[in-house]
Amino acid sequence: EIEKQNAQKKAGAKAVLLFVGGLYGSLDLGMKLLLLPENAPSPASACLVKTMIGMTAFAITVAVSKSDSTKERIGLLRPAISLAFWNIVSGAFMYEGIKRTTVSRAAILLQLSVVATPLLERIGLGRSQPAAIWIGAAIAFCGVSLLSYSPAATTPAATGASTDDKYQSDGTTYLGDLLVTMGAILWGWYLVVTAALPPSLDATALQGVKYGFSVIMYVIWAYTQHIFLGAPPVLRGWHSFSAWIWIIYIALVPGALSDVLQQRAQVLVRASEAGILLASEPVWATLLAIPVLGESLTSYEFIGGLLILMAAALISWAQEEETAPNTAVVQTMISDLPSAELIPSLSSVSSANKMPLEDTIPPTR
């Protein structure tokens, strides 16, 4: 009877993770629809508002919780700045790319973060990787090659660019693909840096400090783009009701809600299984984008996307066999952290790149 109940709980957890994959797919579509109108805010402005909403929800959660954490609350400044920086840089590439390419291609390419994480882990943490990791990387490379070979639409309707907006119309689908790929790789590095943090740090306090620095960096990013790169004004689109609806949805549903659901469900499911279920994000994004935006997949995109998903699933499985790392390289980036045993494996971060360190809120895109 107990085994039956455990099996039912595990099946329920898998269903929840599959649903979370759908929520992450809707994030890609929501960001595209947010940036599509002619008077849309810039990605930097949208991310700034989204982060402020997330910070408010986080503050409310902390205020009503009764945490008696005894973890260290010192030495948070440098790790918080580091996490905020890499999170924002990866997001900058991702969202600038999503604005210029199709939702389906972006969602597929974002799965490259699963491939990049163990490879960057080898560089940053000095951890040797099993052969399956390298095989998965080779498969992913083939998938990206097919996506690159596939004809890409460059019209304003397809890329989300406005013909009256020089900053947006300069982008093409191929440029968008490149930006999304860079964002995925940088997100993988963000996870490597996260995995090098001592578990003795107070994760809640760290998250709060990171939110504060994120807001400051987003403001700098938004004004820098506007002044030096001709991006839209920082406050453009603030009066748009639909823009506010999409920003609030992105921050609370595929953001806060999916974090809570994933954190609770993944406790009952192996990291490799969770990685495969969460890797369904491109499938959901494509299914949503076809009726909403009229997108379609070419045969090259379908095969290339399938190869990338296969690579992500293979690497998710292979990460179950990881060994303890040498953290010397990444540790130099956060040298003022308290001395503590470093986290031994990125499996606690999730092979799908959204599972948190102990007691943290998952680091979502």
Low-confidence spans: pLDDT under 50, at least 5 residues? 153-171, 323-364
- Pattern of helices and strands: HHHHHHHHHHHHHHH
Proportion in helices: 55-70%
- Report the principal-axis shape: globular
Number-wise, the strands total 0
Radius of gyration: 20 Å
What is the CA-CA span between the terminal residues? Answer: 40 Å
How many helical stretches?
15
- Beta-strand percentage? under 5%
Counting helices, strands and paired strands, the structural category is mainly alpha
Largest sheet, in brief, is:
none
Question: Overview of this structure, please?
Answer:
The chain is an all-alpha fold and 365 residues long. It has 15 helices and no strands. α2 packs across α11 and α3 packs antiparallel against α9 (173-195). It is globular, with a radius of gyration of 20 Å. The termini are far apart. Mean pLDDT is 76; it is low at 153-171 and 323-364.
Give the topology:
Layout: H1 2-35, H2 43-64, H3 77-100, H4 103-110, H5 112-124, H6 131-149, H7 156-159, H8 166-169, H9 173-195, H10 203-228, H11 241-265, H12 271-278, H13 281-293, H14 299-318, H15 328-331
Give a quick summary of the entry.
With 365 residues, the protein is mostly helical. The protein has helices spanning 2-35, 43-64, 77-100, 103-110, 112-124, 131-149, 156-159, 166-169, 173-195, 203-228, 241-265, 271-278, 281-293, 299-318, 328-331.
Short key terms for the protein model shown above:
single chain, 365 residues, mainly alpha, 15 helices, disordered C terminus
